[in-house]
Amino acid sequence: MIFLILSIGITSIPAFATHPGNPTLTIIKQSLGGDGTFQIQNTNSSGTSLHILNTQFGFASTTPIDIVAGDLQTVTEVSPNGFTLTGQFCEINGTPIPGNSTSFTSSIGDHVLCKFTNEKQNTTLTIIKQSLGGDGTFQIQNTNSSGTQNHFVTTSNGVSQFPQIFDITPGDEQSLSEIVPFGWLLTGQFCSVNGVDIPLNATTFTPLLGDSVLCKFTNVNQFAPAKITIIKNSGDFSDTFDFTIQNSTTIIPASITTTEINSENTGSAGPFFLTPDTYSVSETVPANWNLDNSECKNHGIPITPLSNLILNPADDVLCIFNNTRTDATGEIHGMKLQDGNPLSGVTINMTNNDNTINRETTTDSNGEYWFMDLIPDTYTVSEVLPDFSIQVFPLDNQPHIVPLSLGQIITGIDFQNEFVGPSEIHGTVWEDVDGDEFVDAGEQRFAGKSIILWKLTPPDLQGSFAGFITTNPSGEYGFTDLDSGFYRIQKPSVFGFSLSTPAGNQDQFVELTGNVVNDVNFGFQSVPPGTITGIKFNDLDGNGVQDTGEPGVSSVQICSTPGNTCTFTNFNGNYQLNLPPADYTVYEPFSQPFVTLNLLATTPSQTVTVISNQVTSGVNFGNIVADSPPPEVEIVNERSFTVNGLPTVYYGEDTTYRKNVGPNGFDHCGTDKPVQINLVISFPQSGTTFEQLMTEVDVTNEIWETTFTPFFPAHGIANLKFYVDCPADTLGFPEDISLISGEDEIQFGGSIYVDPSGTVFNQCTDNPVDGATVTLKVNSPPTTDNFVSSESGFLPDINPQITEQDGRYGWVVVPGNYKVTVAKSGFITQDSSTVTIPPAVTDLDIFLTPVDGCVIPLQEQKEGIITELQSELPTGDKKSDKELEKAISHITKSIDDKFWVDDSTLDSKDGHKVFDEEKNAVKSLLKVDAIDVSDTIVQIITIDEQLATDAFDLANTPENQADKKTNKELTKAESELIKGDKKANEGKFDKAIDHYKKSWKHSQKVLNSEQDDDEDD
């Protein structure tokens, strides 16, 4: 064993030379937190010896000291004032003595080492500073027996940059105070000793050895404003909430739209910087919401009430409002089945129309799932398919579209899957010499070509990487052990050849369902490609042609379909597409900045035939930067929304332009009033122009307006020019806009007209349906039968849309194949046929059928009976013809409007005559022998029963049941209904009608009594 002995700073009794063979003792001292002088005593049979050690840098040691073998030695420390003994031990020849004992008996040749560790007991003062309303440097004085010490503390973000820590003398009274700088108020001070506050916020104290004292001073900037920040929590749902911050002179509105953060919808407004005063903070609670609770805190301390918040300089108030929906009472339930058996642990997703509600759950052990606490909306419910499975219900991998009304509980939203196992894809890359798209004997195969596989989640066509392989010497490739779903097989490249199969420079797309898909081939021909060139330009005058001085626009994407081949314009706006010979549609996607922030002045897509080795040039696209209409112009249309700041309307509707040219609007013509105003609307895409003189409809306020009938087929951006004839009257102007004079004015603006894709109608009534959810679906991937909700590439960028009273919907879309799905609660969801764009489709009308079928009014049903009976004449039997004519006459009299309030309700005074005519009609029909009229008789009886039942249901209210007199009539009415049904079942139809008439009369007495009571009131 080797000992390294340090002798720095050692002071001890006179050292004795050690003698060979004698045991020795070495004492080591460690002092933590500072240096000091320490006494170590060694007691044995000879008495007690004292060793003095002075630590330097926390360490000291004696030289080895001879001790007597076999003599009990006890080594102890006399701890000095200000230090605490925290550790001690001895070891003999490197082996510690058990229990950290410092008593031992040594043997000849032993080497004993004893170590003592002390920790200095400091008495410290820490000063921290808080400055509200700003930062600064503050002077804190500490007065004690040594005088006054000045400590300067600088704040950053309202708190001390670094804590000020000082050693102070135990037993010496300390007194702290602040010299408050100009512009600041000292609002708080206190000291604490070892975490315990000194009473009465005193800053004078006498510390003891080892005490830790903390003193904090708080200042407020007298010139700092107060602040209020509002936080809104809205639970599971997002919405926009309006707030008001108000004092006696000022109202500050605030609006918060909550968004989902960590499964909680939340948002904030502020901070609002306010002059110190008394304020109130309140929320305007939206419809269908409840304000559960709210509170405000000033620097973390609650303050009340919210209607009387007293704010001082630098106050920082945080107000939190918590709301919940009151209409979140709907539910959607369903089950997950695989091969007919419930399947647990499957993820089910649900989103609402505008994607503000996104929820996820998993099926339980019974395969069931629930979405609870739902607001009225239309929801999309979908599943995450288990591995190697296909969805067999709903068909075509579609989600459920679930319209949910208030409090509705919808069940049966089930998903059924079939386990199909792994799938495979195989194909060949070859030279299709004869262009027949078949791999023929003798045609060259291309080996070593890279084939990349991508798994798709439509409508995304890029997908995620799913595999890579190269073709073998026979040009063949294959992917195995694939999950079900859609895949894209990226086309390879073959130098010197053009892709001919599939046509249109496309990748291959397949849907796998546990099957083996062969012949996913890529054919090439040694035919040079052709080229499409053009320019993207800023069409400053909106005429659809690039004129001198109109610059090209760089970095705009230009695409062709099929194949989805895209490129970007260069710095001059030029682009080039090299494509195999075929027919293509060239277009620019909407979802890029220059296109969405401006509007096309040329056609949105162009069809081009690419010929080998030829360049097709001039396929240009121009955009115009459209200004919003002048602020005093109002565009009035049944349907309007905003796209990039421009009012957007459907061109299939009348549009009124209203212009305020008076002092409260835009004061044209100075203090004079305009003589005339001519509005000229031009459409650059179609080159058509419309103009109309405006009429002054409000002379006092100088309001002018004009209404244009639909511009069909013109659509797209519309340039507005107002030609204002100011006094004196310019002859012939503004009818002839070229005759403008110096005092006259021209004003510009723009709006957009979107071609409506179609209208949603009620199948039963042919009336437009409002409140229907219309979803645009795009064919994705191409060449498959799959359609999914389109996420981009259309204007307006709202999908789905909700129809209004006119039932109309519409999008401008990029080229592709589309379907439209329409859903509304109470109706059967309907899909449109597939449409291909271009050309534009503006008549895709969709008819919704009510879930309960079409309810035909009773009067209309009778008209149908008349028509049916008339079609039977003549029967060939004179007697039967005579009776049929009598029946037709009686039924015709029964539908006279004087007996009816509406098409299903009888007049209370004369309605009984309808039953009389029906009874006579039935009697006549019972005498008809030539044809079978039994179904017609049942129809008549059913209508009469319905008339009586409807009257009874209307009269049978809780109030009428509680009244003795009316309840007696209700009992009679119900009894006659039962008798009528019995007679009808017995085939005694004329008797049945008599009972239905009596039931109706008793119900009318109740209803007439209600009316009399209302008149008395």
Structural class label? mainly beta
What is the count of DSSP helices, taking H or I runs of 4+ residues? 8
Biggest sheet architecture = 6 strands, mixed
The rounded Rg comes to 46 Å
User: Which whole number gives the mean pLDDT?
Assistant: 87
Strands, total number: 81
Query: How does the overall form come out from the CA principal axes?
Result: extended
Strand content: 35-45%
Q: How far is it from the N-terminal to the C-terminal residue, by CA?
A: 117 Å
- Low-pLDDT stretches are 1-18
Question: Could you estimate the helical fraction of the residues in percent?
Answer: 10-25%
What is the count of distinct domains? 9
Domain SpaA-like prealbumin fold: 25-120, 125-219, 228-325
Keywords: Secreted, Signal
Domain SD-repeat containing protein B: 427-507
Main location: secreted
Structure description:
The model is unreliable at 1-18 (pLDDT under 50). This protein has 8 helices and 81 strands. Strand 12 (137-144) and strand 13 form a beta hairpin. The strands form 18 sheets. Strands 1, 4, 5, 7, 8 and 10 form a 6-stranded mixed β-sheet that branches. It is extended, with a radius of gyration of 46 Å. It has 1017 residues and is mainly beta. It folds into 9 domains: 24-120, Immunoglobulin-like, CATH 2.60.40; 124-221, Immunoglobulin-like (Sandwich); 226-325, Immunoglobulin-like (Sandwich); 340-418, Immunoglobulin-like (Sandwich), CATH 2.60.40; 423-525, Immunoglobulins (Immunoglobulin-like, Sandwich); 530-624, Immunoglobulin-like, CATH 2.60.40; 633-717 and 727-743, no CATH class; 758-848, Immunoglobulin-like (Sandwich); and more.
